[in-house]
Amino acid sequence: MTDGTKWTNGEEIYLSFNTDSLGYANIQSISKNPFDNNGNYLKAKVRYASSVEQTTLLIDYPFDRYYMEESKAYRAEVMYRESQRDTSTTTYALVKIKNGESVLEDVMINGIPIREVVKSHDENSGE
User: Fold this and answer.
1) Could you report the per-residue pLDDT of 20-41, keeping only the tens digit for each?
2) Where do the domains of the chain lie?
3) b/e burial code for range 52-86 (CB count within 10 A of at least 16 → b)
4) For 109, how many CA atoms within 13 A lie in the half-sphere containing its CB?
5) I need a labelling partner for 114 at 20 to 30 A (CA). Which of 20, 76, 83, 125 fits?
């Protein structure tokens, strides 16, 4: 970021998004004030701001938890971590946003909901 805006760790910020050719959301702009774009913005917080040569901003997103049946949650967490290490795997979150708020709808591994990935794993391993 090179717009000269001063950011503070822990500061509330607003993010607007665009969608790339593959359908993934990318941050389009960041502001200290809510956007007026039909509610398609997200409220988040600055985790860390650095202004050495250009501003680096690490963002704390409000959707950092995903809930599922407790007996499957540990396996899902392990499978998620493994998918992050495998460069041939595409892992992403389906998040709905409106008027600054968000809901984490699902976690996807290679286009399959993580609940289904765990279920398939359990069926194939006899658990």
Assistant:
1) 998 888 999 899 998 886 778 9
2) 1-62, 63-127
3) eeebebeeeebbeebebeeebeebbeebbeebeee
4) 21
5) 20
